[in-house]
Amino acid sequence: MPRILPALALAAIATFLLILPGAASAASSCPGAGARPTAANAAQVGQATLCLLNRQRAAHGLPRLHAHPSLARAARSYAQLMVRQRFFDHVSPSGSTMSQRIRRTRYLRGVRGWSLGENLAWGAGASAAPASIVRAWMRSPGHRRNILDGTFREVGIGIVPGAPTGTPGGATYVNEFGRRS
User: Fold this and answer.
1) What is the pLDDT of residue 28?
2) pLDDT tens digits, residue range 15-60?
3) pTM for the structure as a whole
4) Would the pLDDT of 5 be above 60?
5) DSSP the chain
6) Which end of the chain is more exposed for a tag (fewer CB within 10 A), N or C?
7) What are the tens digits of pLDDT across the range 90-139?
8) 145 CB-near residues (< 8 Å, 6+ apart)
9) pLDDT at 66 over 80
10) Nearest to 176 by CA among 43, 57, 93, 67
11) How far apart are the first and last CA of the chain?
12) What are the Cα distances from residue 149, in Å, to 61, 63, 78, 153, 173?
């Protein structure tokens, strides 16, 4: 049976996150965790984000998330759309929802049961680094719930330079969490 996070949790996840400078930890064993996202380092920053998410899960005895290309495509496209159209919400101005965007990738094709979740964030300057973003998510109950949801096994990470507000030096993050059965 399909499962999407309850509306209250999704509302909490949609909360605007402007992370304060200096939030990134100096010491992280995930390469690129302190990097500011650019087009040139997008792959490294995405890997750092996945590493940080998996460190949080490991600290709570949960299995690792595995990158899934369909979820990554949905996440990247949505992050690009938010920057291009200057909005920040789980529902696009045209009305598309997380589950609709993920269905278009065929991630859910042929499955009987599934679970989905989505985290959004953006930051500018040092606050756009993966360590700052993941730290902010872990301090937010709705975001933390997605990261530590033991039913999720796969994730798509979309990180694009630019902020939905047009703030210089910003980056926008979308994580699409999933499990199929």
Assistant:
1) 55
2) 333 333 333 343 358 999 999 999 999 999 999 999 999 999 999 9
3) 0.86
4) no
5) --EE--HHHHHHHTS---PPTT-S-S--SSTTTTPPP-STTHHHHHHHHHHHHHHHHHHTTPPPPEE-HHHHHHHHHHHHHHHHHT--SSS-TT---HHHHHHHTTTTTT-S-EEEEEEEEEEEGGGGSHHHHHHHHHTSHHHHHHHT-TT--EEEEEEEES-TT--TTEEEEEEEEEEE-
6) N
7) 999 999 999 999 999 999 999 999 999 999 999 999 999 999 999 999 99
8) 5, 9, 117
9) yes
10) 67
11) 9
12) 11, 10, 22, 9, 19
What is the C-alpha separation between 167 and 19, in angstroms, rounded?
Answer: 13
Rounded Cα–Cα distance for residues 149 and 140 (Å): 14
Q: What span, in angstroms and rounded, lies between the C-alpha atoms of 27 and 131?
A: 10
Q: Are 103 and 179 in contact (CB under 8 A)?
A: no
